[in-house]
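queue> pop job 88
queue> type: inverse folding (structure -> sequence)
queue> payload:
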Protein backbone atom coordinates (compact mmCIF):
# COMPACT_ATOMS: atom_id res chain seq x y z
CA UNK A 1 0.00 0.00 0.00
CA UNK A 2 2.85 2.40 0.86
CA UNK A 3 4.44 1.79 -2.56
CA UNK A 4 1.14 2.47 -4.32
CA UNK A 5 0.50 5.73 -2.45
CA UNK A 6 4.07 6.88 -3.10
CA UNK A 7 3.72 5.93 -6.76
CA UNK A 8 0.38 7.73 -7.08
CA UNK A 9 1.81 10.96 -5.63
CA UNK A 10 4.84 10.85 -7.94
CA UNK A 11 2.63 10.03 -10.94
CA UNK A 12 0.29 12.95 -10.20
CA UNK A 13 3.24 15.35 -10.01
CA UNK A 14 4.76 14.09 -13.26
CA UNK A 15 1.40 14.15 -15.03
CA UNK A 16 0.71 17.73 -13.94
CA UNK A 17 4.16 18.84 -15.09
CA UNK A 18 3.60 17.15 -18.46
CA UNK A 19 0.18 18.77 -18.84
CA UNK A 20 1.60 22.18 -17.89
CA UNK A 21 4.30 21.88 -20.54
CA UNK A 22 1.75 20.62 -23.07
CA UNK A 23 -0.60 23.58 -22.60
CA UNK A 24 2.11 26.26 -22.50
CA UNK A 25 4.60 24.95 -25.06
CA UNK A 26 2.70 22.71 -27.47
CA UNK A 27 -0.67 24.43 -27.35
CA UNK A 28 -0.32 28.12 -26.62
CA UNK A 29 3.23 28.78 -27.87
CA UNK A 30 3.72 26.44 -30.84
CA UNK A 31 0.22 25.76 -32.15
CA UNK A 32 -1.23 29.27 -31.79
CA UNK A 33 1.85 31.48 -31.40
CA UNK A 34 0.13 33.15 -28.44
CA UNK A 35 3.52 33.64 -26.79
CA UNK A 36 7.20 33.19 -27.45
CA UNK A 37 9.34 31.33 -24.93
CA UNK A 38 12.99 31.94 -24.12
CA UNK A 39 15.64 29.51 -25.37
CA UNK A 40 16.32 27.99 -21.95
CA UNK A 41 12.64 27.36 -21.23
CA UNK A 42 12.00 26.07 -24.73
CA UNK A 43 14.77 23.48 -24.47
CA UNK A 44 13.70 22.47 -20.97
CA UNK A 45 10.10 22.03 -22.11
CA UNK A 46 11.17 19.97 -25.12
CA UNK A 47 13.22 17.69 -22.88
CA UNK A 48 10.41 17.30 -20.34
CA UNK A 49 7.90 16.36 -23.05
CA UNK A 50 10.36 13.91 -24.54
CA UNK A 51 10.91 11.92 -21.34
CA UNK A 52 7.34 12.15 -19.99
CA UNK A 53 5.18 11.75 -23.12
CA UNK A 54 7.34 10.91 -26.14
CA UNK A 55 5.31 13.45 -28.14
CA UNK A 56 6.91 14.83 -31.30
CA UNK A 57 5.91 18.54 -31.13
CA UNK A 58 5.26 19.15 -34.84
CA UNK A 59 2.95 16.13 -34.94
CA UNK A 60 0.94 17.42 -31.97
CA UNK A 61 0.77 20.87 -33.53
CA UNK A 62 -0.43 19.49 -36.88
CA UNK A 63 -3.21 17.50 -35.21
CA UNK A 64 -4.33 20.44 -33.11
CA UNK A 65 -4.31 22.93 -35.97
CA UNK A 66 -6.40 20.53 -38.04
CA UNK A 67 -8.84 20.32 -35.12
CA UNK A 68 -9.30 24.09 -35.34
CA UNK A 69 -9.62 23.98 -39.13
CA UNK A 70 -12.42 21.37 -38.96
CA UNK A 71 -13.89 21.80 -35.47
CA UNK A 72 -16.66 19.26 -34.86
CA UNK A 73 -17.19 18.48 -38.55
CA UNK A 74 -15.83 15.75 -40.81
CA UNK A 75 -12.06 16.17 -40.82
CA UNK A 76 -11.72 16.95 -37.11
CA UNK A 77 -9.19 14.37 -35.81
CA UNK A 78 -10.88 13.91 -32.43
CA UNK A 79 -14.37 15.36 -32.27
CA UNK A 80 -16.97 13.65 -30.03
CA UNK A 81 -19.62 15.09 -32.36
CA UNK A 82 -18.12 13.15 -35.27
CA UNK A 83 -16.51 10.14 -33.57
CA UNK A 84 -18.69 9.77 -30.49
CA UNK A 85 -17.90 10.64 -26.87
CA UNK A 86 -16.71 7.20 -25.77
CA UNK A 87 -14.28 6.75 -28.64
CA UNK A 88 -12.68 10.16 -28.08
CA UNK A 89 -12.51 9.78 -24.30
CA UNK A 90 -11.17 6.24 -24.21
CA UNK A 91 -9.40 5.82 -27.56
CA UNK A 92 -8.16 9.32 -28.25
CA UNK A 93 -4.59 8.07 -28.45
CA UNK A 94 -5.58 5.95 -31.47
CA UNK A 95 -7.24 8.94 -33.17
CA UNK A 96 -4.23 11.11 -32.37
CA UNK A 97 -1.69 8.60 -33.73
CA UNK A 98 -3.71 8.18 -36.91
CA UNK A 99 -3.70 11.92 -37.59
CA UNK A 100 -0.14 12.49 -36.34
CA UNK A 101 1.33 10.00 -38.80
CA UNK A 102 -0.51 11.49 -41.79
CA UNK A 103 2.28 13.12 -43.81
CA UNK A 104 -0.17 15.40 -45.59
CA UNK A 105 -1.34 16.76 -42.23
CA UNK A 106 2.26 17.46 -41.26
CA UNK A 107 2.98 19.16 -44.57
CA UNK A 108 -0.11 21.34 -44.41
CA UNK A 109 -0.36 22.21 -40.73
CA UNK A 110 3.21 22.09 -39.39
CA UNK A 111 5.35 23.33 -42.28
CA UNK A 112 6.67 26.11 -40.04
CA UNK A 113 8.20 23.52 -37.67
CA UNK A 114 10.86 21.62 -39.62
CA UNK A 115 13.02 19.26 -37.55
CA UNK A 116 16.21 20.83 -36.19
CA UNK A 117 19.45 19.13 -35.10
CA UNK A 118 18.05 18.38 -31.64
CA UNK A 119 15.01 16.71 -33.17
CA UNK A 120 17.14 14.56 -35.43
CA UNK A 121 19.50 13.63 -32.59
CA UNK A 122 16.99 13.16 -29.76
CA UNK A 123 13.46 14.50 -29.83
CA UNK A 124 12.27 12.58 -32.90
CA UNK A 125 13.04 9.36 -31.00
CA UNK A 126 10.07 9.00 -28.63
CA UNK A 127 10.90 5.52 -27.36
CA UNK A 128 14.38 6.67 -26.38
CA UNK A 129 12.94 9.60 -24.43
CA UNK A 130 10.37 7.46 -22.64
CA UNK A 131 13.04 4.87 -21.91
CA UNK A 132 15.25 7.51 -20.29
CA UNK A 133 12.30 8.73 -18.22
CA UNK A 134 11.45 5.24 -16.98
CA UNK A 135 15.12 4.45 -16.31
CA UNK A 136 15.40 7.62 -14.21
CA UNK A 137 12.41 6.48 -12.15
CA UNK A 138 14.03 3.05 -11.76
CA UNK A 139 17.27 4.59 -10.46
CA UNK A 140 15.51 7.01 -8.12
CA UNK A 141 12.72 4.83 -6.71
CA UNK A 142 13.33 1.20 -7.65
CA UNK A 143 11.60 -1.14 -10.12
CA UNK A 144 8.17 -1.47 -8.46
CA UNK A 145 7.60 2.26 -8.03
CA UNK A 146 9.00 2.94 -11.50
CA UNK A 147 6.49 0.49 -13.02
CA UNK A 148 3.53 1.81 -11.04
CA UNK A 149 4.40 5.46 -11.73
CA UNK A 150 4.78 4.79 -15.45
CA UNK A 151 1.39 3.09 -15.71
CA UNK A 152 -0.44 5.66 -13.57
CA UNK A 153 1.16 8.59 -15.37
CA UNK A 154 0.33 7.15 -18.80
CA UNK A 155 -3.30 6.57 -17.82
CA UNK A 156 -3.65 10.00 -16.20
CA UNK A 157 -2.05 11.96 -19.02
CA UNK A 158 -3.99 10.16 -21.76
CA UNK A 159 -7.34 10.38 -19.97
CA UNK A 160 -6.99 14.06 -19.08
CA UNK A 161 -5.80 14.97 -22.57
CA UNK A 162 -8.72 13.06 -24.04
CA UNK A 163 -11.16 14.75 -21.64
CA UNK A 164 -10.25 18.18 -23.03
CA UNK A 165 -11.56 16.99 -26.40
CA UNK A 166 -14.38 14.68 -25.27
CA UNK A 167 -15.83 16.52 -22.28
CA UNK A 168 -14.68 19.88 -23.65
CA UNK A 169 -16.93 19.52 -26.70
CA UNK A 170 -19.88 17.80 -24.99
CA UNK A 171 -20.60 18.95 -21.43
CA UNK A 172 -20.31 22.37 -19.83
CA UNK A 173 -20.98 26.06 -20.44
CA UNK A 174 -20.93 27.78 -23.83
CA UNK A 175 -20.73 31.52 -23.13
CA UNK A 176 -19.23 32.17 -26.57
CA UNK A 177 -20.52 31.19 -29.99
CA UNK A 178 -18.73 27.89 -30.59
CA UNK A 179 -19.36 24.21 -29.83
CA UNK A 180 -16.56 23.84 -27.27
CA UNK A 181 -17.42 24.08 -23.57
CA UNK A 182 -16.00 25.49 -20.32
CA UNK A 183 -15.62 23.22 -17.30
CA UNK A 184 -13.79 24.88 -14.42
CA UNK A 185 -13.25 21.58 -12.62
CA UNK A 186 -11.55 20.19 -15.73
CA UNK A 187 -9.52 23.39 -16.05
CA UNK A 188 -8.16 22.81 -12.54
CA UNK A 189 -7.01 19.31 -13.54
CA UNK A 190 -5.56 20.37 -16.91
CA UNK A 191 -3.79 23.67 -16.16
CA UNK A 192 -6.54 25.72 -17.78
CA UNK A 193 -7.33 23.53 -20.79
CA UNK A 194 -10.85 22.83 -19.52
CA UNK A 195 -11.77 26.42 -20.44
CA UNK A 196 -12.14 25.17 -23.98
CA UNK A 197 -15.01 27.41 -25.08
CA UNK A 198 -12.88 30.43 -24.15
CA UNK A 199 -10.00 29.02 -26.14
CA UNK A 200 -12.05 28.51 -29.28
CA UNK A 201 -13.41 32.04 -28.91
CA UNK A 202 -9.87 33.53 -28.98
CA UNK A 203 -7.37 30.84 -30.08
CA UNK A 204 -4.41 33.25 -30.12
CA UNK A 205 -4.85 34.32 -26.48
CA UNK A 206 -2.23 33.03 -24.06
CA UNK A 207 -4.77 33.36 -21.26
CA UNK A 208 -7.65 30.89 -21.21
CA UNK A 209 -9.43 32.34 -18.17
CA UNK A 210 -11.69 35.30 -18.98
CA UNK A 211 -13.19 35.75 -15.48
CA UNK A 212 -11.76 35.80 -11.95
CA UNK A 213 -13.61 32.62 -10.98
CA UNK A 214 -12.01 30.67 -13.83
CA UNK A 215 -8.82 28.78 -12.95
CA UNK A 216 -5.94 28.77 -15.43
CA UNK A 217 -2.71 27.72 -13.73
CA UNK A 218 -1.05 27.64 -17.14
CA UNK A 219 -1.58 31.40 -17.30
CA UNK A 220 -0.09 31.85 -13.82
CA UNK A 221 3.00 29.97 -14.98
CA UNK A 222 3.21 32.06 -18.16
CA UNK A 223 3.11 35.25 -16.07
CA UNK A 224 5.96 33.92 -13.93
CA UNK A 225 7.96 33.12 -17.06
CA UNK A 226 7.22 36.61 -18.39
CA UNK A 227 8.45 38.17 -15.15
CA UNK A 228 11.80 36.37 -15.40
CA UNK A 229 12.22 37.22 -19.07
CA UNK A 230 11.40 33.76 -20.45
CA UNK A 231 8.06 34.56 -22.12
CA UNK A 232 6.77 37.29 -24.42
CA UNK A 233 3.03 37.58 -24.98
CA UNK A 234 1.42 38.10 -28.38
CA UNK A 235 -2.03 39.04 -27.03
CA UNK A 236 -1.76 40.24 -23.40
CA UNK A 237 -5.53 40.29 -22.76
CA UNK A 238 -8.15 38.39 -24.78
CA UNK A 239 -10.90 40.55 -26.22
CA UNK A 240 -14.31 38.88 -26.55
CA UNK A 241 -17.51 40.86 -26.96
CA UNK A 242 -19.57 38.65 -24.65
CA UNK A 243 -17.01 38.27 -21.88
CA UNK A 244 -14.74 40.55 -19.92
CA UNK A 245 -11.22 39.35 -19.18
CA UNK A 246 -10.14 40.01 -15.62
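queue> result:
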Amino acid sequence: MHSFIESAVIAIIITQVAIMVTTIYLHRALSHRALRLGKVTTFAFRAILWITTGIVPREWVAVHRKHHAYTDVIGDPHSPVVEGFLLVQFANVYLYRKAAKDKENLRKYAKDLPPDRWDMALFDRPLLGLGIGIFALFILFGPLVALLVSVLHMAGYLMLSAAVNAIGHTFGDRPHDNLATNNNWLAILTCGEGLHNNHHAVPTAARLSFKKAQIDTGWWTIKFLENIGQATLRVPRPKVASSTAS
